[in-house]
Amino acid sequence: MQDVRSTSVHGIFDGARYTVDLKEKICSCRSWDLTGVPCNHEMSAISAQVLDPDDFILKCYHVDTFCKVYAPAIMPLDGLEMWKKIGYIPPVIPNFERKKGRPARTRILETNEVQKDKKPATAIHRLPRQRGKMICKFCHQVGQNTKCCKWKKLTKEFPIDDVFEQATEIEHITTHVNKMR
Fold first, then answer.
1. Inter-CA distances, 126 with 69, 75, 112, 129, Å
2. How many whole angstroms separate alpha carbon 124 and alpha carbon 42?
3. How far apart are CA 48 and CA 11, in angstroms?
4. Which end of the chain, N or C, is more open, meaning fewer C-beta atoms within 10 Å of its C-beta?
5. Against a cut of 0.85, is the pTM above it?
6. Could you give the CA distance from residue 34 to residue 64 in angstroms, rounded to a whole number?
7. Tell me: the pLDDT tens digits for 22-55?
C-alpha cells in the first residue's frame, strides 16, 4: 500500500459535503463501511493524491483471494433420499387464512397504551354503555320486555272474549303468575 499523505479529505460532491479518511478507510456516506469498495467520494480523494485504487479495496474482493477460497474441490451433497432420518416431527406450515368479515381498522388498545394524538385509555373509556331500564309494553313491569312477558304468554293460552269474563280471567292469570314466581 502506498503512503497516504493526508489523513482526511473534505470535499463537496453533488451539493453535499463529505469527509473521507483514507488511513482509516472511512467516508461520511458510510458506503465504504458497508461494502468495502470505495465510493465516488473516496475515489476522488484517492485520485487527488495519485494513489492506486486497488490498495483501498478489501482483500476479499481480490482475484487471488477468490482463487484461494475455491482452489479445493467442492464435493456435491448427497440427495434428499440419502439424508440421515431423525425422530423429530416435521414442521407444519402455519395456516394463514383471512378471517371472514370486514377487517378491523384499528386494534383495541390496552388501558395503559396511548393512541396517536390522544390521551391514554383508562378504565372509564372501556366501560360498557349504560342502558335505561327495560319496561314491558304489555304488563308495564320493570326488568322484562314483551318478548319474555309472562302475562302475554298466559293471555295467549287463555284468550278473553267477553268483558264480563275479563275480570275473572285476570284474577286467574295473576294467581297463576304468582305461583310461577
1. 64, 65, 12, 9
2. 61
3. 11
4. C
5. no
6. 22
7. 888 888 888 888 888 888 888 888 888 888 888 8
